[in-house]
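Case study B.
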Amino acid sequence: MSSPSQDRRADEKLGRILGRVGSVRTRLNSLALQHAIFYTLAIAIAGGAAVFAGAYWLSPLAFLGGTLALAVIGCAGIASAVGAAWRMRASAVRAAAVADDRAELKGRLSTIVALANHQARGSLWAYLVEDTLGYQDQFAGARIERRRVSRAIYPLAGAIVLAMLAIPISKIKHAPPIASGSGQDDLTVDLDDLHLRPADPGDESGMPVTADAATMRRLEEKLAREGAANGEAGGNSLNQLVNRARGMAGHLQNKLTGQQAASKQRLNLRLADAGADQDQKEIRRAPETPKNRHSDVAGQFKQDQPESNREGDLPREDDSRQPISKPSPGGYGEHGAEADAGKDNPGDQDNSPTDRSTQQSGENGGNGGAAHGTGADPDSLFGAPAAAKLGTEGFEIAIEARPVDNGAKGAGHAYVAPKVRAPLSVNQEPDEPVARAAVPAEDRTTIRRVFER
Amino acid sequence: MSSVQAETPTVADFARTFRRIQAEIHKLIVGHEQAVEELLSALFVGGHVLIEGVPGTGKTTLVKTLGLALNLSFNRIQFTVDLMPADITGTRVILSGDDGRREFTFQPGPVFCHILLGDEINRATPKTQSALLEAMAELQVTVAGTTYRLKPPYFVMATLNPIEMEGTYPLPEAQLDRFMFKVRLNYPGEGELTQIIASTTGPEEAGIEAVFHATEAPGRIEALKRLVREVMVAPAMETYAARLVRTTQPQNSRFVTEEAGAVHDEMVNRYVMFGSSPRGAQALILGAKVHALLDGRANIAREDIEHVAVAALAHRIILNYAALSDGIDAAHIVERVIKSVRAGKP
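Model:
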């Protein structure tokens, strides 16, 4: 039977051992906590840097998708890090087991911690405590776990470096959000190839369009037609959703990049065939065929680029933040129609912007005769008279040439004849549709009967 | 009770005594250090040992030497096919008393001793083999309705000859399970063989010195056995031993109930018909306690359990025909189980 003093001494020794185990436990739990915090910060910082860079580099939809993907990955990563930290946390028994393993104490500490609160410890308990205390230097907290800072500090440092690099890289490398006309002063765009989208309420990410009254009216008609077409297709709500998402993402990008309406470009449109709008409205209402698409003389707008944006940056093809979706390079003028007819035509490679506008003007002028037939419809014979106009100042002679199969051996590319443009002489007038004239009421019945026959 | 018996041995006493007995045995037995340690471990926890080895590897010599070193009473039974249970336990015979009256008197069999060697136990019939069961498990023998207690320490060592299987009766699983350890004696190496030749063919034989006096030997050994039981076991170690035993049991056995967190080994499922019984877990812990004391510790560690795992579990694992055809033995299964449990430890 042990005396009270012996018991007190044994308790003191036990307390010393448990105290050391406690310090090991504190250190392990501190590392587990650091693991969770550092990894969470690292993921948040790296994710933030990626979102920030994405705001400069990505289109709104790509930015939105990327941000959502990053958010999901980040949440999973944080959950994983917190879970790992939770598993790393140490109870007293686990801290003792870790100390046993690292100090090679062969279960001494684990046994003491597990049995410390037991009443019946056995006759060898005092021996065990004494024996274990002899190894107390080996299971000091600092020896069991040397680290005070978790290794998770390295990912955090990496994320901070990444974030610091993201700022200058984004500032240097990013292209302006809205293209500015490929360095051209004017662009002539076929009305059919000009895609317009009304801005969503509150969405200020689009490009403001200015135009004279006649042009605006045509634009509104086009918007109305396209809106009706979209409604028939049943994709209106989806489009609205996508547009809303795009607008939201663009707004967020603007917030992140600091680009506000101040840097917004303005698009000035005017009809290239001003004066022929009324007749051409009738033409547009006719069923669309490739032929009458080409004949759409009035469907041409000239885009006046602001002075500040005339030079420099190329348009980004995927930049869908523009409310007016510009046609692709292959979609300008008649090339849009040509691309529909045969995109592989190598002759289309020779389409400098200047040639494009002139080719388009000439070609449309040449096709103007097709409109006469359309005007012969008895239902649309009569209307308000239109003033005759000269919409074009020249014509083009298109020389169509086909590649010859039995050409010289080893020839690289077949020869494609260029389109030749010759200016009109002073005595010539362009081939224009006959302007609508006023018809006396008494003659109308006769004329209608002739056309109906 | 003698004064020696009254002394409470310390951990150091245990280790010193154990090492001394080992040294005495190794005066005559060359090599087989692991086997000798397991033999003594079983002795100090009250278990019994099955010794398997080819002829001439020193099975009988080992047991005899142990009896001499411990200075305990020692008997040897050569099991043969015509050996009867009464030849082991003893029988009642008619003897004349001093007054000339004749009466039945119990004549104890060779089982009444401290150390019993059952040589080639698989040559006796199962009936005779079973006669040892009661003695081994309960330290008592019942003859003609009368129960006779055996004096502790009681230690049975049975030898098995793995070859010459004709005319033998393999031990039933129930009886195998009552042996705490199965010790395998392999052929000695070249160096060991040289020592054996030198020590056994000279004019002088090695003299075995008894570690205990004859009168105090039983008491000292019992005290050491009590000390072994005092070694502390953390709950985690009990869990580890239990998990080892559970993992030896095939998942698809109808005797095994599935439970969450159980570790399963593909090799066990493929080759094991029946896994270890709970006695295997007891043997693991008790053997580990002896090993811990030998290491100067009053607690067991994972290493202690693993040290005795093959000896404690291998003979309790019943393999199927696939294992026999693939040349897989139970020791291999146990080693694999240890790896699996270590890998899947919480």
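Strands of chain A lie at 186-190, 195-196, 209-211, 267-271, 300-304, 324-325, 394-397, 420-423. The remaining cases will be described in the next quarterly update.
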